[in-house]
Specification:
By secondary structure, the protein is mainly alpha-helical. It contains twelve helices and six strands. It is a multi-pass membrane protein.
């Protein structure tokens, strides 16, 4: 087993490369090596340097080959700030979903009707017409944190806890948060565009499928074995199109948005990384707005 304090000489490097596991996290695969000590490192340990990536020990010791700014401001694979707790945003999102679930259990249908995603419908017989088409665009976001059945929130939160931390570590908190929210919004927008106006939709599935797409892109970027994530994604897509009462629009919209954003985040050229990444987020938000404007015009025109 590799030790974090293992040899850095040629023999130690050969052992590390052969093991293909992070020297700081032996249970994680690593196909990237530190440009200084050449030991394999996982996404959480990758710190952006002027050329390639360095491990935290080399950066901390000031022995890295990057510029001083790289050493003073460690960066993730996507250029985000390296956080002490790479699971913080994942925990917050999980807590928000659980809190809204508990609130719905307490408040009942009244709160449910206020947060659900639907295009245009009457919440009560002969009641006022409500929905996104009536200006309630907030439903695109609130429905992402809304669950009614215990099995529904358990499945989605299991997916969030499984996929979230590695992505958060590789992308950084801000980029991970943006990817999660925009994936969910893209799923909501496609649902609004395609589904019947009175069809209600809820759940974090769109955002979770966005994490699936982003994980596949990240694993390909890291040259990991993609078979596990592809099999898991295929199973979830099979359920999407075979089970009843599942919004396939949210799943597909989130998946495509997550994969597209992740590609821009991890493949952006270093010299134009910020511009490309901000541009990708802006373009995705614009797509969401355009889809909603088009559908609103259809329903109200």
């Amino acid at each position: 087993m590799e030790q974090s304090g293992g040899p850095r000489g040629p023999e130690g490097n050969e052992e590390a490369r052969a093991a293909a596991h992070c020297y700081r996290h032996p249970d994680r695969e690593a196909n990237i090596t530190c440009t200084r000590c050449e030991r394999p490192i996982c996404p959480e340990c990758m710190i952006s340097a002027s050329v390639g990536f360095q491990c935290p020990e080399c950066v901390k010791g000031g022995s890295g080959t990057g510029h001083a700014a790289d050493a003073n401001q460690p960066r993730t694979l996507a250029g985000g700030s390296l956080a002490a707790d790479p699971r913080l945003v994942t925990k917050v999102l999980l807590g928000l979903n659980v809190a809204v679930f508990v609130a719905v259990m307490i408040q009942g249908d009244r709160l449910l009707d206020e947060l659900l995603l639907f295009g245009q419908a009457a919440t009560e017989p002969y009641g006022p017409v409500e929905g996104v088409a009536e200006g309630q665009w907030y439903r695109l976001l609130t429905s992402m944190f809304l669950h009614q059945e215990i099995w529904h929130i358990l499945m989605n939160m299991l997916g969030l806890w499984f996929l979230g931390p590695p992505l958060e570590a590789a992308l950084g908190r801000a980029r991970f948060t943006g990817l999660y929210l925009l994936s969910g919004l893209a799923g909501s927008a496609l649902t609004y565009l395609v589904a019947a106006p009175q069809q209600a939709s809820l759940g974090a599935s769109g955002a979770i499928f966005g994490l699936f797409g982003a994980t596949a892109v990240l694993m390909r970027r890291m040259r990991y074995d993609m078979r596990p994530i592809l099999v898991l994604l295929a199973i979830n897509l099979l359920f999407t199109f075979t089970w009843s009462n599942i919004s396939w629009e949210a799943h597909v919209g989130g998946l495509v948005a997550g994969a597209a954003l992740a590609y821009a985040l991890v493949h952006a050229p270093r010299e134009k990384r910020t511009l490309v990444q901000y541009g990708a987020f802006g373009a995705m938000l614009l797509v969401v707005v355009v889809l909603c404007v088009v559908r609103t015009a259809q329903l109200t025109g």
